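Posted in: Structural Biology > Protein-Ligand Complexes

Title: Requesting predicted complex, protoporphyrin IX containing FE in pocket

I'd be grateful if someone could produce the C-alpha cells for the following input. Sequence and ligand are given below.
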Amino acid sequence: MGDVVRAPWDAYFVTGFDTCSEVLRGRNWLAPDFAWQERQDDPERWGAVATQEMTKTLSRLNAPEHTCQRRSLGNLFDRSTIQRLTPVIEEHSARLLDDLAEKLRWGEADFVSTVSEQLPISTIGSWLGVPAADHPHILEITHNQVYAQELLPTKSELATSAEATGHLRAYFTEMVRQRRAKPGNDILTGWIHHWDAREPDRETADEILYRLTMFVTIASLETTATLLSAMVGLLLGEPGRWAWLRENPGHIDAAVDEVLRYDPPIQINTRVAAEDTVLAGVPIAKDSMVHVLYGAANHDPRRTENPDAFDIERRGTHLTFGGGVHYCLGAALARLEARTLLIQLLERFPTLRVTTPPVYASRLVFRRVTSMGVSI
Ligand code: HEM
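-- Reply #1 --
Done. Output follows.
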C-alpha cells in the first residue's frame, strides 16, 4: 500500500525499511512528549493517569531532557558489563532449566511461565537488586501497565494500566528510598550519586531516579520474554532446525537476530512531526503522529530477500531495537539472555518440541506470548 499510509485515525503508518529508519533517525521527528500531549484535544486518551506517567519516561523525552537522562545512564551494557553478567545469566538459565526438566518428567510444561518470563526478571532483578520474592508482583504489574502504551486503549484497559502505574510508582520510589538509606556497590547506588551531584533539589532527583529504575525494569521484561518464547517456537517450528543448530553452534547469534527480525517483540513505535514535512512523497503536518511498523520494515523485500522465510543462515538487518537517539539501551543484554538460554537448551533438551502452540495476547504494540506447551 506504500511506504506511508493514512491510518483510520489522525495519523500515518510507516512501513518501508528505509522510511522507518529515516523517521527513527531524523531530526525532524520527535517522541510524542508531554508538551505534544498537552496540545492534543482528546483528554480521555492523553490525560489518562497511566498515559501521562509513561510520557515522562526516557523513551518519551526529547532533547535536552532526553540527552541529559540518557547520558546519566551511559552505555549500560558495555563489553565489560556483559562479560561480568554472562556467568550470572548462565546460572539463572541453568536453574530455570532444572525447573523445566523437573516439570517435563511428568509430561508437558509451559515454557513461558517456567522459563521465558523468569529469565528476564531474574537477570534485571539481580542487576538492580530486586529481591526474588518481589518478582511475581513486578511481572504482574508490568503486564498490566503496558495497555496504556497501545494505540487505541479502551477505558477499562486504561483503568487497569492506571492501577498498575500506581503500584510501579510505589514500588520503585520505595526501592530508591531504601537504596539511598543503605547504599551498595551497585548500579542504582551509582545513579543516586550521579543525580545527587547534578540536581540540587532532592525531590526532583528522586523523581528522576524512580522513573529511570522503573522504566529500565519494565522495558526489559515483556520484550525479552517474548523474544525467548518466539525463539523457541520458531526454531522448533520446522523439523531438523533444532538438530542443525546443535550441530552448527556458530549460527546461534545469527539465529537470535533472525528471530528478532522475523517477529519483533515491539511492533509499533510512534513519533510526531516537529514541523510540516514530506515523508516518502506524502505531506505531513506538524504534530501529526506517524506509527513506525517494525514488523513491516523487517519484512520489506527491498531490504531482505524472501523476507517471509524464517532463515537462520541469513545475516539480515532489522529495526527491532529502534534507531537513532532512542536506540534500545538493553539490546546487548537481550541478545545475551537469548544466546545463553539457547546454548543451554540445545545441549540439555535435544528432543524438545512444541506440543501446544504459543498463545499471543490480543495487542498491537507489545507482543506477548502468554503460554506455549513443550515436551521432550
Ligand atoms: C528483545 C528485547 C528488547 C526489545 C525488542 C527492545 C526494543 C526497544 C525499542 C524498539 C526501543 C525504542 C527505540 C526507539 O524509540 O527508537 C527500546 C528502547 C529502550 N529499551 Fe529496549 N528492548 C528490549 C530489551 C531491553 C532491555 C533488556 C532493556 C534494559 C535492560 C531495555 C531498555 C530500553 C531502554 C532504557 C529504552 C529507552 C531508550 C531511549 O529512549 O533512549 N530494552 N527498546
